[in-house]
Amino acid sequence: MIDRQKRQLPLQSFSLVVGFMVWVLISALMPHIRQDIELTDSQIAWVTAIPVVLGSLLRIPLGYYTNKFGARLTFMTSFLLLLFPVFWLSVASSLVDLLIGGFFLGIGGAVFSIGVTSLPKYYPKEKHGFVNGVYGVGNIGTAITTFSAPILAQTFGWEQTIRIYLVLLAAFALFNFLLGDRHEAKVDAPMKEQMKAVYRNRLLWFFSLFYFITFGAFVAFTIYLPNFLVNHYGLTPVDSGLRTAGFIALATFIRPVGGWLADRMNPLILLMYVFAGFTLSSIVLAFSPGIEMYTVGVLTVAVCAGVGNGTIFKLVPLYFSQQAGIVNGIVAAMGGLGGFFPPLILAMVYQATGQYAIGFMALSEVALASFVLVVWMYFQDLRNTGNVLNKSM
């Protein structure tokens, strides 16, 4: 068990890195793609957001199938399937090509559900927050692509840059085949039965809302910043890619800190700070500040997103120990969808008003509502001394 445990955490974490590297290919390369394929601002918003759709919805079945077949087979199959949309994008010449390829590119974002379902099987519950936080560092894949892809595209062109990812996907499909755990514990309860057991539980939808904001903000800013910084502040594609990579890196590397803190203190108190921070930083961004204050606001969002992401997946197995796979999938799916809508809403708000203030104020209001819900959950736990959360503290 020890050898398998030591191998699975790095293998699955690096596999997540690759999945997320592929997931954000279009948004990272959009400043270069739009030079060859004529796109309106509205079309760009759809093209950069479309990978999030499948990357969100597919998380539910991937969480279920990870429990049924194991992470080895699920990761390997996902990477082999990704070869087709990546190649399609490398020869894209129209909006339709970008939409089709981008939609199936979402498989790269969906693989997140694999590790959060598989890895807790190898560790005691006292370490689940930290382990899922370490796995979540795989989000750094979005930073790697956001920073490196524009630089490679300047030298090799965006089409050839995309083809490089075909080699990476094939390599990690092979790594999972050779090094993945063939004997991972399986859970073969039908998906329909698991859904019936959880869908009426309001805590499932609370956690989904919380992750909709925390991970949704991470994804939304990841796909929204590269093009926004070029158009709004006049930065070069490389400079905007570097700044976006900084946002991603901060949100990613602070995620294990959030998981570690959630293992050592009440996770609900931690979430109170998270949503208070989201509320205040969104208000700052709503006033369209200069690049300095905008940077402060965005980095505050990064910290809150990272800590919140690490905390929420500590809570899920505490409340849903028997249905962790399907609940992880649902919560992760809602987080992904949280990254789909904001860029589109921001684009529509900007077209209608010429500014982004209303969109950011909407984020602050939803974060404030989540803060109130967390406070309510906290006092409910204080009343109910038999709650699993109180037992775990």
Automatic annotation (TrEMBL):
Coiled coil: none
Gene3D superfamilies on file: MFS general substrate transporter like domains
Domain Major facilitator superfamily (MFS) profile per the UniProt entry, residue ranges: 1-382
GO CC entries: plasma membrane
One MF term in the entry's GO annotations: nitrate transmembrane transporter activity
Protein origin, superkingdom: Bacteria
TM ranges: none
Locations listed in the record: Cell membrane
Keyword match Cytoplasm: no
GO biological process: nitrate assimilation
Pfam family, one: MFS_1
Keyword Membrane tagged: yes
Keywords from the named record: Membrane, Nitrate assimilation, Transmembrane, Transmembrane helix, Transport
Annotated membrane topology: Multi-pass membrane protein
Family designation: Belongs to the major facilitator superfamily. Nitrate/nitrite porter (TC 2.A.1.8) family.
Name of this chain's protein: Nitrate transporter NarT
